[in-house]
Amino acid sequence: MKPAAAWRHSLAAAGVLAAASVFSAPADRFANVEVKAVPVAGPVYMIEGAGGNIGASVGTDGVLMVDSQFEPLAARILAAIQVLGGDKPKLVLNTHFHGDHVGGNPFFARAGTVLAHRNVRLRMAGCTPGEPSCDAADVPGLPVVTFDDRLRLHFNGDEIDVIHLPRGHTDGDAVVWFQDSKVIHMGDHLFHARFPFVDVASGGTVHGLLANLERVLDMLPADTRVIAGHGPLGGVKDIQAMAEMLNRSLAAVREAPDEDALEALKRAGLEGYEDWSWGFVNTSRWIGTVVASEAARTAAP
Ligand SMILES: [Zn+2]
């Protein structure tokens, strides 16, 4: 598969697109999307439109953006930033490679520098991390600064830690923690009150997601504002709620590996999570993800 096609395939796999037809008629899909900024704390805003929530720090140092949604929305996103007194971002961080988070990169990379975990660059270029060779494509908007574990940026009065969380939603995720403003952008390590999409085909695992959330909970002050990858602005309690659901799901499968997983999960209380079921990850898909992820973990050497 051509790299560009691979990237687009991952978009569809992420369920962000109702169908591949988005590429033949993007104007229709995005015509009525309203892009709006929500103040979070200090210089930090959340920008909603379609796709993953954007984080933006707007101040005297300029604009730093976390994720870029879709290219057809880029002009509207920039207009929303200009209403806040900013302009084209100097720095664009990507939380992971899915197309609803990096789609606007080609637009914003003309004036800014894109930064991400090294696996984001590899996967956007159509490569698979860990494979010895790859004919990487020159995809517009690729990250030009990559990191393995973490980065610290100093911008608009914040110390901003960009921290890689391994093998959770994918194998290349990072969260972005604005320490002075007490805000964190979770990327798709957090879907607000929804069963999460775990991209197992791209290195994601349920137990990794849980371990990563517990690590984040250990480091965050309780009054941190939380930008989820998808859903409204929230707080630490939303991360706690996701970790609890993951714990219940994994415990149920581990305690009753020989029984029907659906029944085990229901007994464990997953029936209290009916409203977490949504179009792309309904309850049965979620259970299947947990079972597959746990089976792969126990089979690993
Ligand atoms: Zn994603």
- Gross morphology is globular
Which class best fits the helix and strand makeup?
Answer: alpha/beta
The radius of gyration over CA amounts to 19 Å
SSE sequence, one letter per element? HHEEEEHEHHEHEEEEEHEEHHH
Proper CATH architecture: 4-Layer Sandwich
Give the CA-CA distance, first to last residue. Answer: 30 Å
CATH class: Alpha Beta
**What is the CATH homology-level superfamily?**
Ribonuclease Z/Hydroxyacylglutathione hydrolase-like
Question: Number of helical segments?
Answer: 10
**Range of strand content:** 15-25%
Strand order of the largest sheet: 1-2-3-4-5-6-7
What number of domains? 1
Main sheet summary: 7 strands, mixed
- Point out poorly predicted stretches: 1-24
Ligands bound here?
zinc ion
CATH topology: Metallo-beta-lactamase, Chain A
How much helix, percentage-wise, in residues?
25-40%
Number of E strands:
13
Explain the overall architecture.
Mean pLDDT is 88; it is low at 1-24. The chain is an alpha/beta fold and 301 residues long. It has a single domain (3-299), classed as Ribonuclease Z/Hydroxyacylglutathione hydrolase-like (Metallo-beta-lactamase, Chain A, 4-Layer Sandwich), CATH 3.60.15.10. The strands form two sheets. Strands 1-2-3-4-5-6-7 form a seven-stranded mixed sheet. The chain has a six-stranded mixed sheet with strand order 8-9-10-11-12-13. The two termini are 30 Å apart. The chain contains ten helices and 13 strands. A hairpin with a 7-residue loop joins strand 9 (158-165) and strand 10 (173-178). Zinc ion binds next to loops.
